[in-house]
């Protein structure tokens, strides 16, 4: 039985019902009421609400009867247009990436339900996004361009080359010809892991930095390449990709510090004396000094800069700035 507090919301119940229909097409009213922790009368109201939204749910009488979600034919979820359907698939993938295990399962089942309800013209795009996408456990917040995701996902599945303009983290713009392999999300940002034809190497590209995408008809070659998910994980968490880096020591145990340093920005290790050393990067010295100092202030611990001198200078600037706030 589901949590009573959660299931008081009609929206949550509607999502839960769709999730259950992806597990089994036919459910008795009593079984649905038991699973959602509500009365059979509430189930009838929720089913009617889904019908009003365009979901083809039928009621079958008799001992083997119940509610059945009809699939196939000309019946599909008419309240979503093509772009909205792809957006829903993208949103569910993001939910699966960043949610607890139970919500992840619901999101993936909801994707499966959509696949049974959409017309073939839209279903191909949703299937393409789902098949070519995956998740990586690091994060920040960059809204996805669902049209770009759909086009790159289609290129991945068709195994064709693409070209685009790309702006790197330092603002340099270049033209890229690549063979896209996978579309991956950290839960908050999207990347395309591709074989770069100009550099003859695997590369990852943030989708919000891609413009002027052209999908070609040239077939991608068969190559023996590393796993795209593992490559991106290492690229985001191990490669010194920020313009400035610093090392500091916190006079606190590792378990106290590690949750405060996102893996996208740096790494932590426990020193022999029980303190924690952090290596972290950022776009500039003042931003890095502010972020690392804030950890010490938040936790009430001492931070000692190790290297380089530019970081120590930035700490002094930040300190003076904070002190000036209290000046008359």
From TrEMBL:
Residues 10-77 form the HTH deoR-type domain. The keyword Nuclease does not apply. The keyword Transcription regulation applies. Pfam families: HTH_11, WYL. Keywords: Transcription, Transcription regulation. GO terms for molecular function: DNA-binding transcription factor activity. This is HTH deoR-type domain-containing protein. The lineage of its organism: Bacteria, Bacillati, Actinomycetota, Actinomycetes, Mycobacteriales.
């Amino acid at each position: 039985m589901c949590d009573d507090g959660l299931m008081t919301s009609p929206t949550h119940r509607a999502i839960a019902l769709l999730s259950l229909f992806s597990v089994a097409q036919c459910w008795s009213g009593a079984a649905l009421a038991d699973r959602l922790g509500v009365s059979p009368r509430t189930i009838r109201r929720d089913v009617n609400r889904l019908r009003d939204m365009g979901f083809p749910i039928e009621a079958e009488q008799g001992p083997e009867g119940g509610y059945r979600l009809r699939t196939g034919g000309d019946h599909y979820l008419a309240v979503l247009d093509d772009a909205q359907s792809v957006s829903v698939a993208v949103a569910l993938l993001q939910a699966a990436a960043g949610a607890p295990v139970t919500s992840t399962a619901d999101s993936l089942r909801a994707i499966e339900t959509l696949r049974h309800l959409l017309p073939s013209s839209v279903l191909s795009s949703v299937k393409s996004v789902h098949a070519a996408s995956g998740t990586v456990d690091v994060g920040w917040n960059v809204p996805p361009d669902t049209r770009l995701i759909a086009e790159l996902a289609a290129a991945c599945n068709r195994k064709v080359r693409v070209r685009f303009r790309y702006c790197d983290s330092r603002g340099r713009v270049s033209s890229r010809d690549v063979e896209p392999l996978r579309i991956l999300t950290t839960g908050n940002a999207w990347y395309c892991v591709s074989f770069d034809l100009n550099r003859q190497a695997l590369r990852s590209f943030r989708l919000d930095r891609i413009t002027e995408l052209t999908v070609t008809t040239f077939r991608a070659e068969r190559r023996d390449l590393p796993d795209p998910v593992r490559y991106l994980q290492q690229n985001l968490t191990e490669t010194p990709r920020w313009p400035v880096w610093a090392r500091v020591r916190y006079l606190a145990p590792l378990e106290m510090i590690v949750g405060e340093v996102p893996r996208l920005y740096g790494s932590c290790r426990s020193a022999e004396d029980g303190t924690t050393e952090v290596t972290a990067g950022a776009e500039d010295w003042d931003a890095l000094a502010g972020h690392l100092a804030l950890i010490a202030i938040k936790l009430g611990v001492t931070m000692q800069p190790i290297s380089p001198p530019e970081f120590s200078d930035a700490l002094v600037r930040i300190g003076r700035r904070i002190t000036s706030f209290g000046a008359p």
